[in-house]
Amino acid sequence: MSEAAAPGDVTDPRQLRRTFGAFATGVTVVTAGGPTPHGMTANSFTAVSLDPPLVLVCVGRDAVMHRVLSTAAHFGVSILAAGQQPVARHFADRSRPLGAGQFETVGWSPGPATGAPLIDGALAQLECAAWRGYDGGDHTVFLGRVLAMRRGPGSEALLFAGGRFRLLAPDHEEVAA
Q: Where in this chain does the record put each Flavin reductase like domain (predicted)?
């Protein structure tokens, strides 16, 4: 029998972050258009429902993106491909310019359904109508109804686990779930 890990202190944010970081996630850039466009790297993203088609993203209440999504009618989600680590770092950097300036060094295109900026070369892109927001402690859980989507030609996603970006090891054999 294996030895159980000692219980952690759930009031210690560093221990919580380390424990939560054991769960590998994909990496996205969430964007909103309009007169003051904004983007933010997010790994708290998931599909919620097929009917209606819904996704969610969790955004910290202290983030600029929180204020943006609280009033936005639409937003975009670009699911980053394995080679897009510099894009993820750019939109995670709190010292980047605000507004349109933050998109000047990144390839992007306006989404045809909403105009939200979508990151070029992304593994997949979604355009969403803001649907609902729910209290999530120090975050808000924003749900979006998917209006349009595109799947890029790539096959490998950029991952985040253990506090750093990761890539999948090459497959030797596919395993069916």
A: 20-167
